[in-house]
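Researcher: We plan to redesign the surface later, but first we want a full-length starting point. Tokens attached.
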């Protein structure tokens, strides 16, 4: 069936993802291949010390990317996009979005990038005997309670960015299991919020201004594959003010970017995992069994199906690299050579591949924001070298690329060396891998495992949430998500796999020794900020 026929026959599915630097709407066909897309670029802003996105920009970005999708459909197929078989919404996990009973936003959105909840995260981790990271929604809520912030008494609803957009479009205050696992711990036997921990939190908050039981303000969890609402008339007008796109389309449960990455890489079974790398970088490793110890560097979240996943999440990845590459581009432009961005990145990555495997003693810290995995409280990008370091462009650029994965490696080493978690299949996706050589090779060396880039790696989370929406729309009785991905999506899909090279393994291990030994100096620099 052609793309036009698929769209006309209401067989196409839409995935919309709110990433850290762009919002993307993607239309896929019956063969799950992309048919059309629309994109809206945006950036977080540091407002009064808080990393945030305005909800006005959330709504604007939603309209703009969907308008781009509709325009792309009309240009490619000569028809108007009026309906779809299903829609899914995904976004960056975690953070703090709270509203009163009239749906008024109480404080600006506090994103995953903020590191302001250390006291709350520490106390909840101790109370629950379960790692609660600073970026989790419950840590933000409890910190607001501890700070006696006046808005706490008015909280009637707390959700994630994906849950908020889903609510705007469907009127349903719901969430997918995986995204919920970044709000509050999930009980493995029920795939719902952990009841004992809910009760313990209510006890902690009993004499505070929070006027409701925790579960009453959390979004309801809807299992993967089930319908989580339909596009309302009001939602359709928000999505498409022209009135062309019609109400009534069913929605799958809204999910987090970590879960859509797992769907997009078919890494939802034990000993598989994926690494997503862009503005932030995180790994998701599906566990065979519980970890023996609570590690503050490792989060326990879930797959879209509710299976336990060890997550190492690092707040900074490519932002510092992009800044340096921008400087190099400026220098070239000043010299009369204006190189397109794609070619510039290819050239610099090529130089990185030629650098010494230990970067000649040059160490880069890419901390645009605080980094809990390595104990850095605030953003402070730094470059360090000894007088005898081999300081040249190849070693410098290689160090900048290494720095994108260094914090991740620090956390992953705990998982593999202390918990002895086996890694069989690691899939990589995200903007960091647009130039796969050498980033894919460096990641393989850092993890000591094969790393695969699928053909669809560039489509990212918008494709992943489109797959989850399609699963809801087409699944047969007793067809699991694993069956759907294996048989309908990835059966014939090819990927490029690289294996770790010993010289690169030795080099990045030496780099990490220098990196970890320099953290004390970074902490000192941050404290002087």
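Model: Full-length starting sequence:
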């Amino acid at each position: 069936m052609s793309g036009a026929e698929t769209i006309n026959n209401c067989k196409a599915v839409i995935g919309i993802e709110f990433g850290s630097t762009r919002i993307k709407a993607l239309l896929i066909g019956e063969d799950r291949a992309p048919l059309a897309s629309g994109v809206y670029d945006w950036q977080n802003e540091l407002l009064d010390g808080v990393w945030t996105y305005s909800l006005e920009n959330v709504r604007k970005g939603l309209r703009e990317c969907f308008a781009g999708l509709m325009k792309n459909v009309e240009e490619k197929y000569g028809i108007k996009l009026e309906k779809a078989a299903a829609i899914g919404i995904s976004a960056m996990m975690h953070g703090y979005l709270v509203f009163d009973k009239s749906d008024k936003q109480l404080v600006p959105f506090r994103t995953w990038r903020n590191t302001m909840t250390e006291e709350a995260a520490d106390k909840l981790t101790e109370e629950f005997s379960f790692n609660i990271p600073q970026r989790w929604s419950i840590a933000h809520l409890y910190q607001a309670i501890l700070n006696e912030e006046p808005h706490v008494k008015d909280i009637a609803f707390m959700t994630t960015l994906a849950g908020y957009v889903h609510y705007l479009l469907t009127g349903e205050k719901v969430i997918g299991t995986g995204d919920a696992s970044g709000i509050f711990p999930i009980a493995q036997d029920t795939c719902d919020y952990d009841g004992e921990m809910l009760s313990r939190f209510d006890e902690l908050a009993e004499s505070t201004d929070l006027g409701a039981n925790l579960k009453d303000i959390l979004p309801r969890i809807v299992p993967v594959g089930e319908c989580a609402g339909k596009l309302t008339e009001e939602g359709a007008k928000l999505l498409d003010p022209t009135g062309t796109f019609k109400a009534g389309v069913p929605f799958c449960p809204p999910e987090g970017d970590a879960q859509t990455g797992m769907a997009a890489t078919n890494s939802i079974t034990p000993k598989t995992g994926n690494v997503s790398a862009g503005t932030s970088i995180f790994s998701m490793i599906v566990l065979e069994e519980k970890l023996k110890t609570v590690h503050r560097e490792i989060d326990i979240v879930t797959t879209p199906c509710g299976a336990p996943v060890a997550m190492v999440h690092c707040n900074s990845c490519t932002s510092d690299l992009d800044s340096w590459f921008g400087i190099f581009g400026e220098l070239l432009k000043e010299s009369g050579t204006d190189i397109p961005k794609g070619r510039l990145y290819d050239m610099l990555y090529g130089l990185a591949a030629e650098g010494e495997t230990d970067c000649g003693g040059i160490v880069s810290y890419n901390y645009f924001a605080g980094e809990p995995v390595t104990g850095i409280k605030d953003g402070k990008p730094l470059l360090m070298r000894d007088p005898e370091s081999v300081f040249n462009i190849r070693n410098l650029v290689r160090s900048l690329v290494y720095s994108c994965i260094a914090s991740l490696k620090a956390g992953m080493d705990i998982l593999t060396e202390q918990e002895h978690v086996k890694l069989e299949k690691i899939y990589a996706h995200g903007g960091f891998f647009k130039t796969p050589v050498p980033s894919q090779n460096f990641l393989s060396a850092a993890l000591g495992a094969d790393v695969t880039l699928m053909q669809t790696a560039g489509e990212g989370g918008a494709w992943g949430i489109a797959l989850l929406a399609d699963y809801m729309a087409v699944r047969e009785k007793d067809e699991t998500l694993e069956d759907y991905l294996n048989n309908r999506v990835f059966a014939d899909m090819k990927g490029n796999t690289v294996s770790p090279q010993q010289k690169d393994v030795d080099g990045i291990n030496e780099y990490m020794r220098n990196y970890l030994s320099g953290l004390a100096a970074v902490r000192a620099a941050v404290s002087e900020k």
